Amino acid sequence: KPHIRLQIQISLFGDDDRLIVAKDVTRLYQLEQMRRDFVGNVSHEMRTPLTVISGYLETLVDHADELPPKWRRAIETMAAQASRMEALITDLILLSRIETGEHTVDDSLTDVDEMLHQICHDARALSGDKGHTIDVNILDNRLLRGDESQLRSAFSNLVFNAVKYTPAGGRITVTWRTDRDGAHLSVKDTGIGIDPIHIPRLTERFYRADPSRHKDTGGTGLGLAIVKHVLLNHDGNLEIRSRIGEGSEFTCHFPRERLVERVPEAPVK
Ligand code: ADP
Questions:
Q1: CA distance readout (Å), 216 to 94, 148, 186, 222
Q2: Which sign does the torsion angle of CA 121, 241, 131, 230 carry?
C-alpha cells in the first residue's frame, strides 16, 4: 500500500493560537512520480534509434566531399540537429534519475579541488579561440561527501554556462571556500548577465532568460534544473546574483556536515 503524503501548514496567531491545515497530497505526488517515470522511459526508448541515425549521419558527413553540395549542407544540418537531440535526451535521462531524490545519492567522498581543475580544463577547450580567462581558487582542501557524478554534472553545467554566456576575452572565476555556514562553490563570470525578473524561474526546465539573445549556445535548457536537483539531493541550495551587461555569479551552498578531512596518505614503505 502506498504511503500517504500530507502537506502540513502551521500558521501562528498571537501568542497561543495556531491554525494547522493538513492536505492529502498523495495523488499529486503519485502523478508527479508518473510524469518523471514517463519522461525517463520515453527518453530511454528514443536513445537507441537516435544513436543509429546519428551513426549513419556521421558516416555520411565523413564522406561529405563525395556528395553534391546541396546534399552536403542537408546532411551536416541533420547531423548537428541529431547531436543536439542526443544532448537533450542525455540531460532528460539524467534529470529524471536525479529528480527521484535522495535514494539515488551515492555518498562517496568527492575531491572538489581535482574535479574543478578537470572541469575548468574542459571549459578552456570549450572556450577555444574565444580566449576566456578561467581561474580556479581552492580555499579549503577538505573533501565533500556526496555523489561524485551528480556533483560533476552540476558544477560543469555552471562552468560551461559561464563560458557560453560570456563574450570572448571575458573572465570566469571558480571559487571553493568554507566558513561557519558551510561550503560554497561560486562560479562568477563577466558575461551578458540576467535580468532580475528571470532569476526566480531560471531553474525551471526549459526556461530561458531571453531566447533571442542566445539562440546558438547549443544548450538543452535543462542545465540549471539539473543543478537545482543535485543540490537538493545534497541538502544544499543555489544562489544566483546577476546584473545585465556586467556578469553573473552562481553559488552552490552545502551544509558544513558534508565536509570531510582528508586522510593523510600512508607513507610508502
Ligand atoms: P541553457 O541550456 O539554455 O543554457 P540552463 O538551464 O543551463 O539552460 O540555463 C537557463 C538559462 O539561464 C539560460 O538559457 C540563460 O538564459 C540563463 N543563464 C544561465 N547561466 C547564465 C550565465 N552564466 N550568464 C547569463 N545567463 C545565464
A1: 23, 30, 25, 15
A2: positive
Distance CA 106, CA 112 (A): 16
Q: Buried (b) or exposed (e) across 48-70, using 16+ Cβ within 10 A?
A: eebeeebeebeebeeeeeeeeee
Nearest atom in ligand 1 to 210's CA: 16
Output the residue whose Cα is nearest ligand 1's atom 17.
Answer: 209
pLDDT tier at 25, thresholds 50, 70, 90: very high
Task: Please give the angle made by the CA atoms of 128, 130 and 136, to the nearest 5 degrees.
Answer: 75
Pocket of ligand 1 (CB under 6 A): 157, 161-162, 165, 189, 191-192, 194, 202, 208-209, 217, 219-225, 248
- Which residues, 6+ apart, have CB-to-CB distance to 222 below 8 Å? 88, 91, 92, 95, 205, 206
Note the pLDDT of residue 15.
Answer: 84
Coil, helix or strand for 11?
A: strand
Q: What is the pLDDT of residues 107-125, one digit of tens each?
A: 899 999 999 999 999 999 9
The C-alpha cell that represents 254 in the structure block: 552545502
113, with CB counted inside 10 A (0-12, 13-18, 19+), is middle
The answer to whether 52 and 60 are in contact (CB under 8 A) is no
Rounded to the nearest whole angstrom, what is the distance from the C-alpha of residue 83 to the centroid of ligand 1?
A: 19
- Give the Å distance between the CA of 251 and the centre of ligand 1: 14
* For ligand 1, mutation pick of 197, 204, 208, 243 (most atoms within 8 Å of CB): 208
ipTM at complex level: 0.98
Which ligand 1 atom sits nearest the alpha carbon of residue 225? 6
